[in-house]
Amino acid sequence: MIDGLAALLQWATVRIDADYHPWGTGFFVGPGLILTCAHVIQSAHKEKSSLQIYWQERYYEAAITTVSADDSPPDRDLALLKVPLENHPCVLLCGEAQPYSRLYTYGYPGSVPGGTSFIFDAAGPAGERNQWITFQRGPVDPGMSGSPLLDEASGCVCGMIQYSLGLNSERGGQGLQARVILEQLPDLVNQQLVAHQQNRRWLELLSLAQRQRLGQCCPQYQSLLQQNPKALKVFLSYSGSQRDRKLREGLEKQLASFRRQQLIESYHSEQLSAGHERSESQRLLEQADIILLLISPDYMNSDQCYNEEMQRAMQRHEAGTARIIPIKLRPTADLASSPFGKLQALPRSGQSITESRDRDAAMKEIADELYRVIQELKGNQT
User: Fold this and answer.
1) Among candidate residues 319, 326, 361, the one with its CA nearest the CA of residue 344
2) Are 95 and 206 spatial neighbours (Cβ–Cβ below 8 Å)?
């Protein structure tokens, strides 16, 4: 999930300079429009210093379109800058962070003027109206104010960093919730829609669960989500042994019509380039809407399959971000006590594919069951 969105977030994040000196962070929220904290630019605004953004190794002059007053309450600590740019990505600003969410950010602390990434754990909401989110297990150094907070679960920027809870420490900081930002800047709702109509890349990187959550949280995106429904991503987790490979190939032949109809895109580790198998496999696992666990003795004996892919798949199942389907390739002992033991495995008879009298019929049954899941998920896609 997060690799593609993290790269896009980094691309949409800018450094804000005053008289060409690094000052803080901001990010694109609309065509030529940058959001940041008012306190990032307040002193430069008072002193009438020139403002620039540094983006893609170039400087652009920036004009202030909106900035809150000095005596404004902290939840109005907002500013918008305008730059003469159009061809750039925009973040998707929506909702609010939930407790225990993992948050990714990219910003420009003074110690790293070239930009850097951090991952925080959301601790929980703060304020009488839950207008803030506190986060921890990472440093928030000077220059990080105005950095976007990407929520891994929702796939949206759920807030913006405002303050540190302890400089040069792991105490983390506090951010203003996206919900509150949009309440304070209502025109930004339409500017966000325009940005994502013009460039759908952020929407296309969202998983099925993230799209569903976006439609519920921000109904203004429903019409965009209904356009060009995307194929579901199916990841096949299997051991790679010769016996399992042949069975996987037979199963994929049964799924060929689904791919031709663009109902699904299917992936497995052997499709990946040499030298990057594990990292790319993890990325595809994170982005998958459906994960097929192709169970065999070799699968249960594989550290990568059992301890990495299957464990992460079950975490995504418990979080409701992916549908997990165990498929019994070959007879395997003690599956009931495994982490996926309570999930409905296929074939439904309880026999493995190799125990079936007609393997083609068993694989067709699996494909038919998978088609029902695809139709269910596609029906909920928007």
Assistant:
1) 326
2) no
Looking only at the bridges linking them, the beta strands covering 232-237 and 290-295 are parallel
Angstrom CA distances, 219 to 18, 19, 214, 382, stand at 38, 41, 7, 10
Q: Can you tell me the distance from the alpha carbon of 27 to that of 33, in angstroms, rounded to the nearest whole number?
A: 8
Helices 277-287 and 2-12 pack at an angle, to 10 degrees, of 90
Please write the tens of the pLDDT for every residue from 89-109.
999 999 998 898 999 999 999
User: Are 347 and 353 in contact, with CB atoms under 8 Å apart?
Assistant: yes
Characterise 157 by phi-psi region: left (phi > 0), alpha (psi -120 to 50), beta (else): beta
Q: Choose among 230, 227, 367: nearest CA to 292.
A: 367
Pairing, β 33-36 against β 79-82: antiparallel
Mean pLDDT for each 10-residue chunk of the chain (382 residues)? 78 95 95 96 86 94 91 91 91 92 94 91 90 90 95 93 83 93 94 88 85 87 74 92 95 92 85 55 84 97 93 89 94 95 94 95 96 84 48
Q: Residue 110 and residue 323: Cα distance in Å, rounded?
A: 43
The tens digit of pLDDT for each residue in 217-233 reads 888 888 888 765 578 99
Beta strand segments in the chain, E: 13-18, 21-30, 33-36, 51-55, 58-67, 79-82, 102-107, 116-126, 132-136, 148-151, 157-164, 173-177, 232-237, 264-267, 290-295, 323-328
Q: Give pLDDT, residue 370.
A: 95
Among 10, 14, 9, residue whose Cα is nearest residue 24: 14
Output the pLDDT for position 272: 53
The type of residue at 152 is E
Q: Which residues contact 75 (CB under 8 A, 6 or more apart)?
A: 127, 129, 131, 132, 176, 180, 184
| Burial class of residue 240 in the structure, from the number of CB atoms within 10 Å of its CB (0-12 exposed, 13-18 middle, 19+ buried) | middle
Identify the pLDDT of residue 380.
Answer: 60
**Phi then psi for 221, rounded to 5 degrees?**
-90, 0
